[in-house]
Every structure is written in C-alpha cells, then in structure tokens.
Inverse folding.
C-alpha cells in the first residue's frame, strides 16, 4: 500500500524487532518523545500528530483490514469531498475525554510490539473490539457522529423515506437509542454479532 513520508515515519517506529532485547529501543524512543512532549507547544503538536490518519495507519495497515475497509467506505470517499478521519469518530474533541482515550490507547503500543493482533486472528478478535467501540460510542450518545451529523440541523425532508421513518430523536430517547444502535458498519465491515 502507498504510504507518504509521515506514514512511513510512524510505521518505522513500531516495526517489532525479532530480538527480544531490541524491544527496548522503540520503548526508549517513546520515553524520549514523552519527555520532549512536556514542553507545552510540543505537547499540542504531539497530540495533533497522534490524531492524524497517518498515525493510525502506521499500526493498523498490515495488522488488520480496518484501513482497507475504511478506504472503501462512504466516510473516506464520497461526492462532496468531506472526509471523516479515524480520529473524528474515535477520539473526542473535548480535552479531558480526549486525554483519557490517549492514555487508554497506550496499551495498544504494548499490543503492537507484542503482535497480539494479526491478519490471521483479526476476524476473531474484531468481534470483541467492535463491542468495545460500540459500548464507548453508546455511552457518549454518539457524540462524535453528531459533531458532523447534527439532528437539530439536518433537513429531514431531504432524507430517504426509510431514514425519515427512523429519525425521530424523541423516539430515540424513549427507547434509549443512539446513532450506533442503528448504524454500525459505516466505516468498516459490520461486526458479525449484530
Ligand atoms: C502503536 C500502534 C497503534 C496505533 C498508532 C494505533 N493503534 Fe489502534 N490498535 C492497536 C492495537 C495493537 C489494537 C488492538 C489492541 C487490543 O486488542 O487491545 C488496536 C485497537 C484499536 C481499536 C479497537 C478498540 C480498542 O480500544 O481495543 C480502535 C477503535 C483503534 N485501535 C483505533 C485507532 C485509531 C483511531 C488510531 C489513530 C488515532 C489508532 N488506533 C492508532 C495499535 C495501534
Ligand atoms: C465514520 C466513523 C468512523 C471512522 C471514520 C472510523 N471508524 Fe472505526 N469504528 C466505527 C464504528 C461505528 C465502529 C464499531 C463497529 C463497526 O461498526 O464496525 C468502529 C470499529 C473500529 C474497530 C474495531 C474493529 C471492528 O471491526 O469493529 C477498529 C479497530 C477501528 N474502528 C479502527 C479505526 C481506524 C484505524 C480508522 C481509520 C482508518 C477508523 N476506525 C475510522 C466508526 C468509525
Ligand atoms: C467528519 C464528519 C463525519 C463524522 C464524524 C461522521 N460522519 Fe457520517 N457522513 C459524513 C459524510 C461527509 C457522509 C457522506 C455524505 C454523502 O456524501 O452523502 C456521511 C455519511 C453517513 C451515512 C450515510 C451512509 C450512506 O450509505 O449513504 C451514515 C448512515 C452516517 N454517515 C452515519 C455516521 C455515524 C453513525 C457516525 C458516527 C459513528 C458518523 N456518520 C460520523 C461525515 C461524518
Ligand atoms: C432507530 C434507528 C436509527 C437511529 C437511532 C438513527 N438512524 Fe440514521 N438511518 C436509519 C435508517 C433505517 C436509515 C435509512 C438507511 C437505508 O435506507 O439504508 C438511516 C439513514 C441515515 C443517513 C442517510 C440519510 C438518508 O437519506 O438515507 C444518515 C446520514 C444517518 N442515518 C445518520 C444518523 C445519525 C447521525 C444518527 C444519530 C444522530 C442516526 N442516523 C440515528 C435509522 C436510524
């Protein structure tokens, strides 16, 4: 798959070494980045860089099929040219929830280096991953979806009949429903459990 310079920069950082003792090097690199990030402007830069698609691609390409699926979805490629990036859906915009996601995601560095997820076992592991993501989004009342699709602002008369029949925020509230209850598989294959 084609990668630009930033993507290959991030990717090189993770390449797990065959020799156990070399594992310390990427970890050490990470500690260095963390120390550097203590200066405030660098901190902002680092947080923005870790929100870019290139950063997510650096691990998820080759590990699973998530990026390829995303690139075939309407959120990557549509007639308007408005694109939802990985972080638009998976990382909150507000400071504290965003930091919580970042801190939680440091576990992924460990799993990346260990090679926990790979193309052979992904189809099994993704069922659980999808559940984790679903629960997160459900608990946030699909806040990240609504950053772009605001039900207070959408023009329902322009929507399909099927959509109109299901797009009643008062009914959602009554049934404790939110966007992801009806819309999974908007950027990746729909999880097998639903
Ligand atoms: C350092 C490598 C690495 C990077 C960079 C990375 N991921 Fe991951 N990601 C992983 C690994 C490994 C897993 C599986 C971890 C597990 O099963 O607990 C994972 C799992 C996930 C999951 C499944 C839910 C979960 O928390 O387990 C989501 C969603 C996700 N990543 C999104 C992203 C997004 C969005 C980005 C970019 C902002 C990103 N990842 C960047 C390695 C990475
Ligand atoms: C339009 C919103 C959206 C975008 C953009 C998006 N995702 Fe997701 N992602 C979801 C939703 C919703 C789920 C929950 C399960 C599902 O629908 O597949 C999910 C699930 C996942 C999972 C769990 C595995 C699975 O099969 O469900 C991973 C890993 C993940 N996303 C990573 C990423 C990465 C990496 C990117 C960018 C390449 C990305 N996502 C872009 C909405 C999005
Ligand atoms: C960064 C903005 C953005 C975010 C975040 C976002 N979307 Fe979208 N969504 C879009 C755009 C742009 C389109 C394509 C509109 C078009 O061209 O018709 C779209 C299309 C859709 C469609 C129509 C699909 C189709 O086949 O026509 C659904 C359903 C949808 N989004 C649901 C969601 C859900 C659920 C989430 C949260 C998990 C989400 N979106 C997050 C921007 C976004
Ligand atoms: C009770 C189920 C339900 C809920 C909750 C729901 N939707 Fe939908 N939505 C639908 C159905 C059904 C369609 C029509 C899909 C089709 O025809 O394939 C649709 C269509 C759409 C479309 C495409 C518009 C069109 O004209 O077809 C978008 C965008 C969308 N939904 C976004 C959202 C967002 C964002 C939320 C949360 C704020 C949401 N939906 C909540 C059921 C729901």
């Amino acid at each position: 798959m084609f990668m630009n310079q930033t993507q290959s920069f991030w990717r090189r950082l993770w390449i797990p070494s065959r020799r156990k003792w070399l594992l310390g090097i990427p970890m050490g690199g990470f500690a260095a980045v963390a120390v550097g990030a203590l200066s405030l402007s660098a901190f902002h830069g680092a947080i923005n860089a870790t929100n870019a698609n290139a950063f997510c691609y650096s691990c998820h390409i080759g590990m699973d099929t998530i990026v390829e699926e995303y690139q075939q979805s309407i959120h990557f490629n549509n007639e308007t040219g408005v694109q939802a990036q990985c972080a638009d859906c998976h990382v909150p915009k507000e400071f504290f929830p965003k930091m919580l996601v970042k801190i939680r995601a440091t576990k992924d560095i460990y799993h990346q280096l260990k090679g926990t997820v790979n193309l052979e076992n992904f189809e099994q592991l993704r069922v659980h991953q999808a559940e984790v993501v679903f629960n997160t989004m459900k608990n946030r009342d699909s806040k990240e979806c609504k950053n772009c699709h605001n039900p207070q602002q959408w023009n329902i008369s322009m929507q399909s009949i099927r959509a109109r029949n299901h797009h009643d925020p008062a009914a959602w509230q009554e049934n404790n429903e939110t966007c992801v209850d009806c819309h999974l598989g908007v950027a990746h294959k729909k999880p097998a459990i639903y």
User: Anything to note?
Assistant: The pocket of heme C (ligand 2) is lined by residues 56, 60, 66-67, 70, 75, 84, 86, 88-90, 126, 129-130, 133-134, 137, 180, 184-188, 191 (CB under 6 Å). Residues 95-114 form the longest helix (20 residues). The chain has a mean pLDDT of 87.
